[in-house]
Amino acid sequence: MKASVVVVEDDPFVAAHVGRGVAAHDALSLAATAGTLAGARALLDEPVDLLILDLALPDGSGIELIEEIRARDPRRPRILVLSVLGDEETVMAAVMAGADGYLLKDMDSLDIARQAAEALTGAAPLSPSIAIYVLRHLRRQPGQPKPGEDDPVLSPREVELLELLARGYSNKRAADEMSLSPHTIAEYVQSIYRKLRVNTRGEAVTRAFRRGLLRL
Predict the structure, then answer these.
(1) What mean pLDDT is predicted for residues 152-171?
(2) Where is 52: in which H helix or E strand?
(3) Would you say 21 and 64 are in contact if contact means Cβ atoms under 8 Å apart?
(4) pTM of the predicted structure, to 2 decimals
């Protein structure tokens, strides 16, 4: 069964571009599009697997919608930001609000769809420049992180994977780098989330870094 996708984008040309990529992907189905926050809220009354979301909308910021969705359910739907806004402040606001990935709009429609499908498997796609912002933000955190007695114990493989994910690696690319299957990588990701008691990659990286479990 294909995953249902809602695209929230006020530029009809961009919306059509993203929609073509989604429609062409075997695992995705374009359920609907919306050009405003209000329109998106109405669509989310029905079950949705993935939201591809622009941040600069006519009636407000997409970050507001991310916060609303995560207040209801920290896991569903998955949220992939697709925006021209690539400044560090906006990126970190979206990630900390609960976005599962952040891509810039200068991508082919098929690449967007591929990244969207990976987001549904637990990956958190990040454009390379976006990953740099996340790492820079973590390194600026005050104080030196130190492990605590009650901190969860991540295996060496889990730490290795988390370091790759923090640098913007997709699950598939991490699998290639670590010479593991994508299925094994997905199991490691879920184990990391469970141990750290988080639901997204951004939360996992931030919590692991702050507890001294991850060095970047």
Answers:
(1) 83
(2) strand 50-53
(3) no
(4) 0.69
